[in-house]
Design goal:
The chain has 17 helices and no strands. It has helices at about 10-40, 50-85, 90-115, 120-125, 130-145, 145-160, 165-190, 195-215, 230-240, 245-300, 300-310, 315-340, 340-350, 355-365, 370-385, 390-415, 420-450. Helix 2 packs antiparallel against helix 3, helix 3 packs antiparallel against helix 6 and helix 6 (about 145-160) packs across helix 8. Mean pLDDT is about 85; it is low at about 455-460.
Length: about 450
C-alpha cells in the first residue's frame, strides 16, 4: 500500500514541510471561495457596496454552519491518527464510518433549521433594510449546498490525517478553481447577481465533495469510508474531541456577527453600512492569514497525534519546533503585507473611495498582532491534535473572552473605528498566557507520550 507520508519514520523536518505546505495552500485556495465571491459582488454595477455588505452579513453565519464540519472532522481525525499510530486499524476504520454518518445527519438538520430562521437571523446579525434583500438571496441559495459543504470540509480531515496532504489540497483547489470560473458566468453573463455567486459556490462544493468521496471509497487510503459499526458512545467521543475547534470557529464567527451589529449601531445611518462593507474586506484579509495558518497547524497536528500514539515524544517536540518556525514566518510576512499593501487589496473589492479608506485602516489595525496569534495556533491546534481538549479549550476560550470584553468597551469609549483594536488586543495578551502554560506542561507531555510506547517487539491488533 503506497503511503504519501510515513508519520512514524520519515525525518521530521521534510515531513512537516510535506504536510504543512499542501495544507496551507489548500486553505489559502479555499479562502478564494469567499474572497472571490466578495470581489465579484462588490463590483456589481450600481449596487456593489450594498450587495457586498449583505454578503458580509452572511459570511460569518455561513462559516459558523461550516464549523460543524470541523467539529466532526477535527474531532475524529486525531483519534484516527492516534489509533493508526497504535496499530489499531480496525478501530480507526470504525471512527471514520461514525464520523461520515454524523456529518450527513448534522448537515441535513442544520440546513432545515437555518433555512427556517434565515430572515430573523440576518436581521439580528447586522443586516439593514437596504442590505437584507441581498443577504437573503445569497444565504437562501447557499443553504441548498450545506450537505456538500460539510462533507467536503469534514471528510478532508480524514484524508490529511492519514498523510495524504496533497490529495486534500487537490480537492480544495478543484472547488476553488470551479468557483472562480463559475462566478463571473452566473453573476454577470447570466445576470443572476448575488444569487449567482451562491449557486457557483454550491456547484464548486459539490465537485470537491465528489472528489473526496471517490478517493475515500477507493483502495488507496489506509482507512476509507465503510458502513456499519455505528456506536453512539463513539460519536459522542468524536464530538467531545472536536469541541475545541468547533467552538473556536463558531465563536470567531459570532464575534464577526457581533462586530457587524455594533458597527451598525455606532456607525448609525450615515456610516453603518459603509463600516460593515469595510469590515467585510478586512475580514477577507484576515481569512488569508488565519485559514492557511490553521491549515498548517491543523494538518501537521496529525504528526503529533500519530507519534503520541506511537510513544515518540522527541518526534512530537521536534515537529512542534518546525511548525512554530513556519507559523511565525508566515504571519510575519502577512503582517508586513497588511501594513504596506492594504490599499491595493481593498481596491480589488470596491471602487467606493469611502469604503476603501475605512477598510485600509481596519486592515492595518487588525494585523498588528498576528505574529503572536500564530504562536497561539501552533500550541492550541497541537494540543487538540493530541486529543488534549481539556487544555486547548480553556486557552482558546480565554482569547475569545478578551476579544469580547474589548469589542464592547472600545467603541463605547472611543467610537466605531476603535472596535477594530479588539483584534490585536486579543492577539497579544492570550498568547503570552498560552506560551507560559505550555512551557510548564512539556515534561508532562513527554510522560503522556511514553505511556503509549509498546514493549520492544510487540504490536497491537
Amino acid at each position: 500500500m503506497k503511503v504519501e507520508n510515513d508519520l512514524r519514520n520519515d525525518p521530521i523536518r521534510p515531513l512537516v514541510l510535506r504536510i504543512a505546505i499542501p495544507s496551507m495552500l489548500a486553505q489559502f485556495v479555499s479562502v478564494l471561495y469567499s474572497v472571490v465571491d466578495r470581489i465579484y459582488i462588490g463590483n456589481i454595477p450600481e449596487v456593489g457596496s450594498l450587495a457586498l455588505a449583505g454578503a458580509g452579513v452572511c459570511g460569518p453565519i455561513v462559516t459558523m454552519l461550516g464549523s460543524v464540519a470541523f467539529w466532526v472532522g477535527v474531532g475524529g481525525s486525531p483519534l484516527v491518527s492516534i489509533r493508526l499510530g497504535e496499530g489499531r486499524r480496525e478501530q480507526a476504520k470504525q471512527i471514520v464510518a461514525n464520523a461520515f454518518l454524523l456529518l450527513i445527519v448534522m448537515s441535513l438538520a442544520l440546513m432545515g433549521v437555518a433555512y427556517a430562521t434565515r430572515r430573523p437571523a440576518l436581521l439580528l446579525f447586522g443586516a439593514s433594510s437596504e442590505t437584507l434583500p441581498y443577504a437573503m438571496e445569497y444565504y437562501s441559495w447557499y443553504l441548498s449546498g450545506t450537505v456538500f459543504a460539510l462533507l467536503s470540509t469534514g471528510m478532508n480531515q480524514f484524508v490529511i490525517c492519514q498523510g495524504f496532504a496533497k490529495k486534500g489540497m487537490q480537492s480544495v483547489i478543484l472547488g476553488a478553481v470551479m468557483n472562480i470560473l463559475l462566478d463571473p458566468l452566473f453573476i454577470f453573463v447570466l445576470k443572476m447577481g448575488v444569487k449567482g455567486a451562491a449557486v457557483a459556490t454550491v456547484l464548486s462544493q459539490l465537485c470537491s465533495c465528489l472528489f473526496l468521496l471517490h478517493f475515500l471509497f477507493g483502495p488507496v487510503p489506509q482507512v476509507g469510508i465503510s458502513f456499519g459499526g455505528y456506536r453512539p458512545r463513539l460519536m459522542v467521543r468524536i464530538l467531545a474531541t472536536g469541541l475545541t475547534p468547533f467552538l473556536i470557529i463558531a465563536v470567531d464567527n459570532l464575534m464577526i456577527i457581533v462586530l457587524n451589529a455594533l458597527l451598525q449601531r455606532y456607525g448609525g445611518e450615515s456610516q453603518g453600512d459603509l463600516l460593515v462593507a469595510a469590515a467585510t474586506i478586512s475580514q477577507s484579509f484576515m481569512l488569508v492569514v488565519t485559514m492557511p495558518l490553521g491549515g498548517m497547524t491543523g494538518g501537521t497536528a496529525s504528526i503529533l497525534g500519530y507519534n503520541l500514539g506511537a510513544g515518540q515524544p522527541k518526534r512530537i517536540l521536534e515537529a512542534q519546533k518546525y511548525i512554530l518556525i513556519l507559523a511565525v514566518a508566515y504571519t510575519g510576512v502577512l503582517c508586513l503585507v497588511g501594513q504596506l499593501f492594504a490599499a491595493p487589496f481593498t481596491r480589488i473589492f470596491t471602487p467606493d473611495v469611502q469604503v476603501s479608506a475605512l477598510a485600509v485602516n481596519a486592515i492595518r489595525i487588525t494585523t498588528l498582532g498576528i505574529v503572536p496569534l500564530g504562536v497561539q495556533y501552533v500550541i492550541v491546534d497541537g494540543l487538540t491534535g493530541m486529543g488534549m481538549m481539556r487544555y486547548s479549550l480553556p486557552l482558546s476560550a480565554f482569547r475569545k473572552l478578551v476579544y469580547f470584553v474589548a469589542i464592547f468597551v472600545l467603541p463605547a469609549a472611543f467610537g466605531a473605528m476603535a472596535i477594530f483594536f479588539a483584534e490585536p488586543i486579543s492577539d497579544f495578551i492570550p498568547p503570552v498566557v498560552t506560551v507560559l502554560f505550555y512551557w510548564r506542561k512539556i515534561p508532562w507531555l513527554k510522560r503522556q507520550a511514553l505511556l503509549h510506547r509498546q514493549p520492544e517487539g510487540t504490536t497491537q491488533a
